[in-house]
Amino acid sequence: MPTTKSGSSSRAGKTKSANGSKEKPSNGETLKHEQGSEQENSQLEKLFTDSLKDIYWAEKQLTKTLPKMKKAATTDELKSAIEEHLAQTEGHVKRLEQVFDMCGKKVQAKKCDAMEGLIKEGDSIVEETEDGSMTRDAGIIMAAQKVEHYEIATYGSLVQIAKTLGMNDAANVLHLTLDEEKQADEKLTEVAEWHVNQAAEKEAINN
Ligand SMILES: [Fe+2]
Ligand SMILES: [Fe+2]
Prior knowledge:
By secondary structure, this protein is mostly helical. Helices cover 69% and strands 0% of the residues. The protein contains 6 helices and no strands. The protein has helices spanning 8-11, 43-72, 76-102, 113-128, 134-164, 168-201. α2 packs antiparallel against α3 (76-102) and α4 (113-128) runs antiparallel to α5 (134-164). The longest helix is centred in the last third of the chain and has 34 residues, at 168-201. One fe (ii) ion (FE2) binds next to α3, α5 and α6.
């Protein structure tokens, strides 16, 4: 089964022009296309661009969703973890715009069905849990971690594909976001373990 990772290292660092010949990179090692051109050199490059559009839509949606999650949360610890990640998420949007630019692509969003589903699931958890309860926080953490894991999978793949395509500068920028998604995931685990789950376990069902 082919993977995105195998054989990538041998090509990392190379730059190619549209016809496959070498060209002088104008921005570090980053592959440059005609500004705004949607022309792709390969199916893998098309997959890369489509996935960038997808995660760009997702990140923009999250900048609207995270404030709602923060408002719905019970504990100060979870509220501040969400607030911290909201600031990072705004940075992720900007980094993606930078990556589009580095690749010579138009900044474009494409609806991400997976993220839409994960956000809907988060909304249902808030609706189905009591306001002010620790169980609500446990549910929000679960929903938020599903989002983080989706982002980790996406950025992890994008970093490897960027390397394979010789877009090392883009890979480095995407890697910064990947690290922040992992940190956010760990932070949520910490909040669950230290501040939420045990208190939630004591909550009775009130009908
Ligand atoms: Fe993000
Ligand atoms: Fe995130």
